[in-house]
Amino acid sequence: MQSQTDLEPHAKKVIGLVVAASVIIGLLLIFGVL
To answer: TM segments (predicted)?
Structure first.
């Protein structure tokens, strides 16, 4: 149980970083095309 509670916030941080990276890459591609 302790390991799960420790992994939950870490997983949320990883997901947040992935989402932020995908958004930044998407914006770069859009501005690159324009």
So the answer is: 14-33
From first to last of the 34 residues of the chain, give the pLDDT tens digit.
566 667 688 889 999 999 999 999 999 999 998 7
Q: Which residue has the tokens 């939950």?
A: 8
9-18 core/surface letters (b: 16 or more CB in 10 A; e: else):
eeeeeeeeee
DSSP 1-34: -HHHHHHHHHHHHHHHHHHHHHHHHHHHHHHHH-
Q: How far apart are CA 25 and CA 4, in angstroms?
A: 31
8-state DSSP, 15: H
